[in-house]
Write a structure and sequence with these properties.
With 341 residues, the chain is of the alpha+beta class. The chain has one domain: Ribosomal Protein S8, Chain: A, domain 1, CATH 3.30.1370. The protein is 37% helix and 18% strand. The chain has a seven-stranded mixed sheet with strand order 2-3-4-11-5-6-7, sandwiched between helices. Helix 3 links the parallel strand 3 and strand 4.
């Protein structure tokens, strides 16, 4: 969770050197107690989101941030078969355990055709989980990632009581070019999207949640104290939140609704060669991409994107310019944390 941040005016944004943002983030991670090697893994995960305009980026370093758990130990493998594994993160930062999980699931799937690796008992954050699915896709495999947390955010359909977390799911699809990556929360907005909006002192564009009394609201602070609507504001989104809580949580021994540090993650890898064959798979996916990009556009639409493409373009533009836009308040808060390192 993140401490309350009170902002009275809408935040302006500024451009800073990408290298400066990375350096401030490294100092913040050092302040939180991470080693240089651990910081590299965590920062790469956070910058993946930041460079794509995703709200799972450096906003996680402000407020209470993501300090290293005082009881953190090296992750250990609790169970393993040729196609599965279960990793106990031992209260280390989830990104550290997930980095290990991705490496294992890729090796197993390349050998066996399909594999699933889960982690539990992690602390901190697994970040924008499209990052992990993309790693699998970059290896030429289909990657599916699900994450759950024992903190209530999303209510079941017909209720305003928060039972399920924002529980994201991400697909990574290898192609002949850049992977297709669909990364979505089962909630209408991710928790750190609320933190980001509150930090910037702005209301949401729509009533994406409820206050603690069940009234619809677009105030991020009120939603953080109440509940977030499912992504579709209906029974399908609420059902998906429950399913991800089961597969990304109960299946790997993570907790439900008790506020513990026992989070859960699942990553599945599928080798296209074991089914239709890699060449045929790539050819069919290429057809779909071309058809999607060339589809008849509605009035006012200049371009149709496949999942992940817009983020890739944003990232390329930032890397080319060497500068990135961040909010004044976020920058100020990050500098405060970094100065304490």
């Amino acid at each position: 969770m993140v401490r309350s941040i009170c902002i009275t005016k809408i935040e302006e944004k500024m451009k800073i050197k990408l290298t400066e943002l990375e350096e401030l983030s490294k100092k913040a991670l050092k302040k939180y107690g991470y080693t240089e090697q651990e910081s590299e893994v965590i920062l790469d995960m956070l910058m993946y989101a930041q460079l794509r305009g995703n709200n799972q980026g450096i906003v996680k370093l402000i407020g209470r941030g993501i300090p290293k758990h005082e009881k953190a130990k090296t992750p250990t493998i609790e169970k393993e078969t040729p196609t599965t594994a279960l990793i106990n993160a031992n209260l280390t930062m989830e990104a550290i355990a997930m980095d290990q999980a991705v490496e294992m699931v890729i090796k197993k799937a390349k050998l066996m055709g399909i594999a699933i690796v889960g982690t539990h008992n992690g602390a901190g954050s697994s970040g924008a989980i499209g990052y992990w699915s993309r790693k699998v896709a970059d290896a030429g495999l289909i990657g599916i990632t699900m994450s759950s947390y024992p903190i209530g955010s999303v209510p079941p359909h017909g209720s305003y009581e928060p039972l399920f977390c924002t529980n994201p799911i991400a697909w990574g699809i290898p192609t002949k070019d850049e992977p297709i990556v669909l990364d979505m929360a089962s909630a209408s907005i991710a928790y750190y999207g609320l933190v980001e909006a509150k930090t910037e002192g702005r209301k949401l564009l729509a009533k994406l949640g409820y206050d603690k009394n069940g009234n619809e609201t677009n105030d991020p602070g009120e939603i953080m104290e109440g509940a977030t609507k499912p992504f579709d504001h209906g029974f399908k989104g609420a059902g998906l939140a429950m399913m991800v809580q089961i597969i990304g949580g109960a299946l790997v021994g993570a907790d439900f609704l008790n506020g513990s540090d026992n989070d859960g993650n699942v990553i599945i890898a599928i080798n296209p060669e074991s089914l239709a064959g890699t060449d045929r798979f790539f050819n069919e996916v290429t057809k779909m991409i071309r058809a999607t990009k060339g589809a008849k556009r509605l009035e006012g639409v200049n371009e149709i994107f496949v999942p992940g493409e817009r983020g890739d373009k944003t990232r390329a533009e930032i890397l080319k310019s060497g500068e990135i836009e961040v909010g004044d308040n976020l920058y100020s808060e990050l500098r405060k944390v970094a100065s304490q390192a």
